[in-house]
Write a structure and sequence with these properties.
The complex is a heterodimer of chains A (486) and B (423). Helices cover 52% and strands 2% of the residues of chain A. Chain A contains 24 helices and four strands. The radius of gyration of chain A is 24 Å and the shape is globular. Chain B is of the alpha/beta class and 423 residues long. Chain B has helices at residues 2-11, 13-16, 22-31, 60-65, 95-102, 121-130, 141-147, 195-210, 217-240, 251-265, 293-315, 391-401, 407-410, and strands spanning 38-44, 54-55, 77-81, 87-90, 106-113, 158-160, 271-276, 321-326, 350-356, 362-364, 378-379, 384-385, 389-390. The longest helix of chain B is centred in the middle third of the chain and has 24 residues, at 217-240. The chains are: A mainly alpha (486), B alpha/beta (423).
Chain lengths: 486, 423
């Protein structure tokens, strides 16, 4: 099935998406590379109908307990996101949502501990159309802005209910400034550590004093909820001076303002942080590790080019991400399979490669957690510690065991697909190595896989044999180190 | 950390050339070392407010600066006074640790830290993990110790109960398996109902991972993880059969239960890492009410350590075990809000605890004077506690007197401190 252009398209879809379903490979494989990039980046041209297919036949299953409620039950939220990653026709939108979720890493568990499980899920995952009070959950907001303007995303995050709980902004008042959000917006969301000082953190806390929560609605009809409010009475009106420029003229001081006007402080700081050249470089380096290459430090030429587009476009992430996919660093063949797959990427790609009919994404939730990743619950505000860190021994076993689980689930589908290739162990192995593309495999590994097919009896190609050997081979290939790279 | 891992692969070439028959030999070697001393590194993640754990309850500024958060003097568990004659009490929920303290098996080292302490969670954790404020991306201090062990190093020489490798255990040519739960540490098969097929898969996986492609460092790293997972499966399975019922059902409790199981089964592990989070108490810290955030943190800590202590004592392993805690920073002295929602922001020095059968229990170092008058125990305009004992002095004591290595070499300097003889 592989065509000559497939190596490029598959590389693009492993990075810009979560691997490729057969129909995705057909669609993008029919385009030139530049058209494929443009189709991915301008995903709004493709209707956002993926949620309509949840529960329909031909798609991966979800498991319901009563009504399926992804807007208010976090397990269902997780199932919906996995479903979208498998079936969305806008793969880059889901990929960027994951990027932002990791960047603005907010954990459901803390929110639920304060506001309860139902409200916690609402603030993380609700779409306004399905919430009684029109709540827009944080990750849905990020999905809406997946390739939006970075300054807008920052502002939305500063006013986001889940974030106001997560980094304690809801308790930030003029008498008792709260530093948590002020620190992380500089350290993790924009400029990076080393580009701000402790006094900047204290000044930042004052800037966001009064950025709190209110609780409108009524409990009886389910509309009661927390939402952002600028509480003028709790705003510190003094001038705040930073060590870096806030304004285009280089001024580092946000002037004293009346309490009524004080929300402008936060808007000014956000604008100043978005406009800071360190922010562009910080994002460019992070995009390099996420999309391009993890085997080496970010290429300075790449960082400079992408950070330049960030500033020139006035923080337009569509322009920035498009540029990523146009760089020679992205297309360098040395970059292929140079990125350690995240658990969620491994799981989704395997589902796309192996098949999904009769499998429920619910059964992937515990395995992906054992691999070290729980969607909507990153370990801390710095997000997941990616790269080699994913590959502890326990996590590696969890990957092997998910491969085993999915192979067992798809045993009969796999055997039916592979039957035409059952003439010899060699043909059988070639078929599966074409279905589950890996980083280049050493001859010795290939020979061990052949030896496995020949072990336990003469090769006959019988249905019984290809059922057990097909599932076993998928287990071994998907559990191989080579398959763990994207 | 990228550099670290590449160094790992380069340094580890010798270790990669083992065959899949080697683990059994290693385990024999390991068993010979069973009575070796165990080190358990306990991470209190998030920045522990140690002023709520080891409380200078008679300092008038303690109550004054923490009107909502102060633990009333009448409620603390008194443990006496330190060398500066400041009366100290443990958090009221630490009844088990108080008993261990009274038995002389718990040391408390006050005001540990380092100059210009980072208030960043991430940089702070890196510094405490590397014991090197100037090169916080280097190898972990326990990892460097593991690197000094003679080859061949057993694949289970360390045991990380967290899901991912903590920086403290990063080494250049020893890798530590992550085993959050010994029960789930298995190699499954889609042909579980056909044992001969399942066995063939496991055998193939062992053979595949025995050829580590050392010329491809990223790939080699994953190969090594897979290889070590397979090499340690059977011994870890033996730990899974140790199921005492006395541990609390918390992450920390279950992690320490696994650690105890590894010790009881004598699988040869020398160094363990356990972690418990939630210490980043910016709001709703509430150390006083049952089910308040900090109250719960203390409950988790106390109940898990007490169960571990009692289990080891019953198994005769207490004298072989040392638990050392660390947290990336202490917290601000003054509370940041009012009433129930108040908490504390990131600060500087904090207290460490050390527990074990051979510990010289007691209080080491002196409490801060919380009077915001510019006294030398405070910094950052009197907002934070300044350090008195460099945390590397605590590590030096552990390295020299427990692990039996040379702290001056491992810490790149002489941090030995007189009067800090807690072991």
């Amino acid at each position: 099935m592989a065509r000559s252009s497939d190596a490029l398209i598959e590389h693009l879809l492993r990075r810009a998406g979560f691997g490729a379903r057969p129909d995705e490979l057909d669609f993008y494989g029919g385009l030139s590379i530049s058209d494929a990039v443009e189709a991915l980046v301008t995903f709004e041209r493709i209707p956002d109908t993926v949620d309509d297919n949840i529960g329909k036949s031909g798609f991966v299953n979800v498991t319901t307990r009563g009504a399926f409620a992804p807007q208010s039950n976090i397990t269902d939220s997780r199932q919906r996101w996995l479903f979208r990653m498998v079936h969305s026709n806008r793969p880059l939108q889901e990929k960027m949502t994951l990027f932002w979720h990791n960047h603005f890493a907010t954990g459901y568990t803390k929110i639920a501990g304060i506001a309860g499980a139902t409200e916690g899920a609402r603030y993380m995952a609700a779409k306004p159309s399905e919430d009684p009070a029109g709540v827009l959950g944080q990750v849905e907001m990020l999905r809406q802005n997946a390739l939006g303007n970075f300054r807008d995303i920052l502002l939305n995050i500063a006013k986001d209910t889940a974030m106001l709980f997560w980094l304690d902004g809801y308790t930030n008042t003029k008498t008792k400034p709260q530093e948590n959000f002020a620190r992380e917006i500089m350290e993790l969301f924009t400029m990076g550590v080393g580009n701000y000082t402790e006094p900047d953190v204290y000044a930042g806390a004052k800037v966001f004093s009064g950025w709190n929560l209110q609780r409108p609605g009524t409990a009886a009809n389910g509309t009661q909820h927390y939402e952002f409010v600028y509480n003028a009475a709790q705003h510190d009106t003094s001038a705040k001076t930073f060590s870096f420029p806030i304004y285009p003229d280089g001024s580092k001081t946000i002037p004293a303002r009346s309490a009524a006007q004080g929300m402008q402080d936060g808007l000014d700081l956000i604008e100043g942080l978005a406009a800071n050249p360190n922010t562009g470089r910080y994002l460019a380096a992070k995009l390099y590790r996420f999309f391009v290459n993890e085997s080496r430090e970010p290429d300075p030429a790449f960082v400079s080019r992408v950070a330049g587009v960030y500033l020139q476009s006035h923080y337009d992430m569509r322009a920035v991400v498009r540029e990523v996919f146009l760089t020679p660093q992205f297309w360098d063949s040395a970059a292929y399979f140079s990125r350690y797959s995240w658990p969620i990427e491994f799981v989704i790609r395997l589902i796309k490669d192996v098949g999904w009919v009769g499998f429920s994404v619910n059964d992937a939730l515990a395995p992906v957690s054992n691999m070290g990743q729980i969607l909507y619950d990153p370990p801390d505000v710095s997000g997941w510690d990616a790269g080699e860190t994913w590959f502890s021994t326990g996590a590696m076993l969890a990957r092997m065991n998910f491969a085993s689980q999915l192979a067992a689930n798809q045993k009969f589908n796999l055997a039916a697909r592979a039957k035409p290739a059952a003439s010899s162990p060699d043909a059988f192995l070639s078929y599966f190595l074409d279905e589950l593309v890996t980083a280049p495999m050493d001859t010795s590994t290939r020979n061990e896989l052949l030896a496995y097919l020949r072990a336990t009896g003469t090769w006959t190609g019988s249905d019984t044999q290809i059922q057990s050997k097909g599932a076993g081979l998928v287990h071994l290939i998907a559990g191989s180190p080579e398959y763990q790279f994207i | 950390m990228k550099v670290t891992r590449r160094q790992f692969v380069k340094g580890g070439v010798a270790a990669f050339t083992v065959t899949f028959a080697a683990p059994e030999f290693f385990s024999d070697l390991a068993r010979a070392q069973v009575r070796a001393r165990n080190l358990v590194v306990l991470n209190l993640s998030g920045g522990n407010d140690s002023l709520s754990m080891v409380i200078p309850y008679n300092d008038p500024f303690y109550t004054n600066r923490r009107p909502s958060l102060a633990v009333p003097a009448g409620q603390v568990l008194q443990i006496g006074t330190d060398s500066s004659r400041v009366a100290l009490g443990l958090h009221p929920r630490l009844t088990g640790l108080r008993d261990i303290f009274n038995q002389g098996r718990l040391a408390i080292i006050q005001r540990t830290g380092y100059p210009n302490q980072s208030r960043s969670h991430f940089l702070g954790t890196d510094i405490w993990s590397t014991a090197d404020p100037n090169n916080s991306q280097g190898l972990g201090w326990v990892g460097r110790y593991l690197d000094t062990l003679p080859s061949p190093v057993d694949a289970l020489v360390g045991w990380n109960t967290a899901g991912t490798l903590p920086h403290v255990l990063q080494a250049s040519h020893v890798s530590v398996p992550a085993i959050p739960n010994p029960q789930g540490y298995s190699f499954n098969s889609p042909n579980a109902n056909i044992p001969v097929e399942a066995a063939a898969e496991r055998s193939a996986a062992l053979r595949i991972t025995s050829h580590v492609p050392v010329d491809r460092p990223q790939l080699a790293f994953v190969y090594t993880s897979a290889q070590e997972a397979l090499a340690t499966l059977d011994r870890v399975a033996s730990v899974a059969t140790y199921v005492p019922t006395t541990y609390p059902n918390t992450g920390l409790g279950l992690a320490l239960r696994a650690v105890a199981g590894a010790m009881v089964r004598g699988i040869g592990t020398k160094v363990f890492f356990v972690t418990t989070g939630g210490f980043d108490t910016h709001s709703n810290q509430n150390p006083n009410a049952a089910n308040g955030s900090y109250f719960n943190l203390m409950a988790t800590l106390n109940d898990a350590l007490l169960a571990f202590h009692n289990d080891l004592r019953a198994q005769g392993l207490l004298d072989d075990t040392l638990v050392v805690s660390f947290s990336e920073f202490g917290r601000r002295i003054s509370e940041n809000g009012s009433g129930a929602s108040s908490g504390t922001d990131h600060g500087a020095a904090s207290a460490m605890i050390v527990m074990g059968g051979r510990v010289n229990g007691g209080i080491y170092g002196t409490a801060p004077n919380l009077n915001p008058n510019g006294n030398p125990t405070l910094e950052n305009n009197n907002a934070d506690v300044t350090f008195e004992t460099d945390f590397r002095s605590v590590y030096a004591q552990v390295l020299d007197n427990w692990l039996g290595t040379d702290s001056v070499t491992l810490l790149n300097g002489n941090f030995r401190k007189a009067g800090l003889g807690f072991i």
